[in-house]
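Entry:
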Amino acid sequence: MGGAASMRKISYRRFDHPKYRFILAAPLTLDTNIIGRACKTERVELKADGTLVITNRYAWDGASGIAINTENSVRASCGHDALYQLMDLGLLPRTKRLQADACLRRWLIEDGMIELRANLWFFAVRLFGELYIKRR
């Protein structure tokens, strides 16, 4: 992937939609720790090597609950929402939720969020994230 600085690039814009806050203006590639689980939708692909590819025009809602969207949370929230979407669709086992949440924390720190705040985000998704995955 080339180093943390290259992984931090995200091109997005605010999105005036009742369900979504942001939309990608260019594809986003993220490194996950979810290996050996390939799955794909129209806008999200998780490759067997752990690479997550999210296409241009993918829309997501950003931070949930009392969390505040900041520049250092946008990329991480996009990747995390995409992984949860794969779980919601039954394409990625729910047993991968802890790994998806750990990716969120890592991406937040890579993008400059202080570790204390990133840990709070991690604990919040551990406590409440299951509510955002539909029951199957």
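The first helix runs from residue 4 to 7.
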